[in-house]
């Protein structure tokens, strides 16, 4: 059974509540198995990525499209089939569980809050270690503002990837929509790098994730603006996001940093090389307490989403009666 508008709103609250209470599974997480299959599939279909010539350009991309379709569309189609054929009680439960599977709000907090705690305690070494688990930049020589900046950027960007993208696609297509988004986002994280091996094979995964995230990212940026300094968020979004490589991370992080009134972005070390990055936000370099503020901003934005969805649902019900 496919949920009506009222049921969809109730299921959204339910999925968010389940994630808040339980978080992600500690053992036997389905994404772990999914990731292993994706890794093996890439190795099987993309063994000779150095092949030259036109075949070396087109063929890996085509195989990447086929692999993406198999990994994302088949599970999504199976979920949709089950939901259309299960009794309504089980269908509703499956919708809620699929949203829980797609969400990562509690996991995000569990990764970011210990960083803030270490920074507040003055334990720079521990904060570097914890932050290095969630970002790819080199933090071995990072000072407190650099670690705080990395944590804030991760919190803001993953607020979209781990929360708002799933909420958006759940609102559009129920449990299968949230499932498809989470799987596509996972493949982008695995295959979407511009390395010699993955540049062509992962092209589809990266481009599709950009497309799926385009509208959710802008809704996330708008939510961040409404939950903080809206004028600064809008100003930074418009001025800084176009300079960012990612079409979706730019608006999200620029708006979030502007809303928080902290200065993020800027140069950072990746794989031993200093990479020049555009600035994000405005104000002073972030400190430990700003990491906590970033988490609270994400939480306020989630609550805003839920309240607005509920108000919209109520308005539609009243108008259509």
From TrEMBL:
Converts cobyric acid to cobinamide by the addition of aminopropanol on the F carboxylic group. Belongs to the CobD/CbiB family. Signal peptide: none annotated. One of its GO terms (molecular function) is ABC-type vitamin B12 transporter activity. It is found in: Cell membrane. GO terms for cellular component: plasma membrane. Keywords: Cell membrane, Cobalamin biosynthesis, Membrane, Transmembrane, Transmembrane helix. HAMAP family: CobD_CbiB. This is Cobalamin biosynthesis protein CobD. It is a multi-pass membrane protein. It comes from the Bacteria.
């Amino acid at each position: 059974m496919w949920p009506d508008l009222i049921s969809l709103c109730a299921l959204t609250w339910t999925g968010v509540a389940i994630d808040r209470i339980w978080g992600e599974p500690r053992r036997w997480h389905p994404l772990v198995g999914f990731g292993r299959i994706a890794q093996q599939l890439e190795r099987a279909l993309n063994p000779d990525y150095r092949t030259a010539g036109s075949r070396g350009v087109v063929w890996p991309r085509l195989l990447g499209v086929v692999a993406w379709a198999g990994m994302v569309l088949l599970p999504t189609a199976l979920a949709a089939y089950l939901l259309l054929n299960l009794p309504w009680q089980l269908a509703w439960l499956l919708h809620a569980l699929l949203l829980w599977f797609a969400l990562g709000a509690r996991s995000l907090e569990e990764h970011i809050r210990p960083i803030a705690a270490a920074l507040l305690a003055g334990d720079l070494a521990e904060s570097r270690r914890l932050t290095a688990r969630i970002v790819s930049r080199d933090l071995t020589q990072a000072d407190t503002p650099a670690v705080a900046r990395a944590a804030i950027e991760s919190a803001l960007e993953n607020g979209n990837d781990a929360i708002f993208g799933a909420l958006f696609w759940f609102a559009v297509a129920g449990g299968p929509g949230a499932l498809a988004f989470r799987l596509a986002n996972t493949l982008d994280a695995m295959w979407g790098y511009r390395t010699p091996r993955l540049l062509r094979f992962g092209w589809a995964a990266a481009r599709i994730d950009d497309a799926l995230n385009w509208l959710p990212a802008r809704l996330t940026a708008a939510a961040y603006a409404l939950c903080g300094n809206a004028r600064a968020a809008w100003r930074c979004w418009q001025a800084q996001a176009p300079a960012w490589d990612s079409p979706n991370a730019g608006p999200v992080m620029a708006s979030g940093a502007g809303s928080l009134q902290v200065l993020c972005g800027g140069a950072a070390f990746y794989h031993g090389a200093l990479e020049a990055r555009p600035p994000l936000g405005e104000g002073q370099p972030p400190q430990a307490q700003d990491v906590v503020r970033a988490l609270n901003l994400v939480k306020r934005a989630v609550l805003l989403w839920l309240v607005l969805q509920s108000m919209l649902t109520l308005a539609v019900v009243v108008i259509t009666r």
